[in-house]
Amino acid sequence: MSLITLLEYASVLVFAITGALVASRAQLDLVGFAFIACLTALGGGTLRDLLLDRNPIFWIANPTHLAVGVTAAMVVFFTAHLLESRYRALLWLDSVALAVAVAAGTGVAISLDQSAVVVVLMGMITGCMGGLMRDVVVGEVPLVLQQGELYVTAAFAGAATAVIIRSILGDDALALFAGACMTWILRAGSLYFGWHLPVYKSRPPRV
Fold first, then answer.
1. Domain residues of the chain, as ranges?
2. Beta strands in 11-56 (DSSP E)
3. How many CB atoms lie within 10 A of CB 205?
4. What pTM does this model have?
């Protein structure tokens, strides 16, 4: 199994769990769990593959990804009540999923010999779009857009780090690992220490 395939499986699994946790907070049925879990797990990678004209799309080429998402949803459906704070678990699992997905998306774009700009964008899309779709569908404010959160910024920094490390050292595996670490450190710092970007605050017009 290649590194990129391994990263895609890990991304699908962890993002599917976050989707199922969101479904539990929305009190959906078993089918709703499976739908939200798979939308979260596969959404970002699907959009990436469509933009890159990667045919067939990764989960159509290997439906095991879909099976992983559904299985994760089933497990969470019967165990979510055991978590003391599902929202806290969701935030931290999502941070891990973001880091892995950014690395996976970056790796896919690199394997297709895309330019540095496209590689960074594909890493960001893979990491961010599944969670964005998840939150929009269930009617929650997307984590991607919450005030001052380092989310898209973390994805950008992680993908850019991978590109820079690869250009310097020429080692794809090390570059993707460094990118994943950078993404997670920034996202975890935002959650734990409150790191954030400046937020626009409106001021009354001058008289």
1. 3-192
2. none
3. 5
4. 0.92
